[in-house]
């Protein structure tokens, strides 16, 4: 779906990963490690675009929609972020494919998540997760599970399901991102599950109706929901260059709740309404046009009548 020329231009001009070819030729796994912060810094996980489309015109993104959104550098939800990442890697020689996941939540819709897998060999596979509103620091070696990382001072882990063959989990340990520590120290909260079976983009057309079209089942159509990594200078101004190593900063917006975190800590602020969140969005997601954010806010403010303001806990 993506030509090598388009991939090369995207890496250089959109991700601004100037020495990508040198890194790739030196070490494929190191290339993936460095690609993660470039991608998470420059392509946003968000729901702005789907909320500026008239309800009668909403649809689950096709392969061409995904390519257009990816090449533009604006990003989108999981099917856009992780499928475009898969196409990008395929175009520069990787064996990559998408698999189906199931994000656990109040509306349990099977196959509601898309994840990217990169296969070096049948015995060496890596998961790349850049299409979810959760921190993701580096490629997960699926052949060396369990694999544990830290965000906002709490651990999260990728692991095999104990009692379900071929199923894997991302679990939250210690405490919730927006909340505090779990009372029960042994808690393993399953954020999502997935299998390693390759699935084409067409497979997700029906399951993702619940995300892209049906307002009653989709948190994406009810309130602001976005995530990215970012860096600031000493004056608090955003900088273009991502943090390749060390403790990176990231922002997660859910409804009227905003979390700015690092590996080790976090700051949480809850606003009174979605209009108060607007300046936060415009500052931390500068690729968005203000008129598009305002149009999305109109949609979310309309949803308040039925669903209320979403406050993360």
Automatic annotation (TrEMBL):
Gene Ontology molecular function, alphabetical: arylamine N-acetyltransferase activity
A Pfam family annotated for this UniProt entry: Acetyltransf_2
Coiled coil: none
Domain of life: Eukaryota
EC numbers, comma separated: 2.3.1.5
Record InterPro entries: Arylamine_N-AcTrfase, Arylamine_NAT_domain_sf, Papain-like_cys_pep_sf
Assigned keywords, A-Z: Transferase
Family: Belongs to the arylamine N-acetyltransferase family.
Protein name: arylamine N-acetyltransferase
């Amino acid at each position: 779906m993506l030509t090598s020329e388009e991939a090369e231009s995207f890496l250089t001009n959109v991700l601004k990963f100037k020495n990508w070819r040198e890194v790739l030729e030196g070490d494929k796994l190191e290339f993936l490690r460095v690609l993660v912060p470039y991608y998470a810094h420059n392509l946003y996980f968000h729901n702005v675009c789907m909320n500026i489309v008239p309800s009668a015109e909403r649809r689950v993104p096709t392969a061409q929609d995904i390519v257009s959104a990816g090449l533009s550098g604006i990003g989108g939800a999981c099917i856009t972020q992780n499928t475009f990442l898969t196409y990008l890697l395929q175009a520069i020689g990787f064996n990559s494919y998408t698999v189906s996941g199931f994000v656990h939540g109040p509306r349990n819709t099977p196959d509601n998540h898309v994840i990217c897998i990169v296969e070096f060999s049948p015995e060496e596979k890596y998961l790349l997760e850049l299409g979810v509103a959760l921190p993701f620091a580096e490629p997960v070696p699926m052949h060396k599970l369990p694999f544990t990382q830290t965000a906002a001072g709490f651990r999260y882990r990728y692991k095999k399901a104990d009692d379900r063959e071929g199923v894997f989990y991302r679990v939250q340990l210690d405490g919730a991102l927006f909340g505090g520590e779990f009372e029960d120290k042994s808690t393993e909260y399953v954020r999502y599950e997935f299998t390693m079976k390759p699935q084409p983009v067409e497979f997700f057309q029906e399951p993702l109706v619940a995300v892209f079209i049906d307002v009653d089942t989709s948190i994406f159509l009810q309130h602001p929901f976005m995530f990215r990594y970012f860096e600031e200078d000493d004056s608090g101004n955003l900088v273009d260059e991502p943090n390749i190593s060390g403790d990176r900063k990231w922002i997660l917006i859910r409804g009227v709740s905003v979390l700015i975190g690092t590996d080790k800590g976090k700051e949480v602020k809850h606003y009174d309404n979605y209009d108060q969140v607007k300046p936060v969005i415009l500052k931390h997601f500068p690729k968005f046009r203000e008129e598009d954010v305002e149009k999305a806010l109109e949609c979310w403010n309309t949803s308040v009548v039925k669903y209320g303001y979403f406050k993360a806990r």
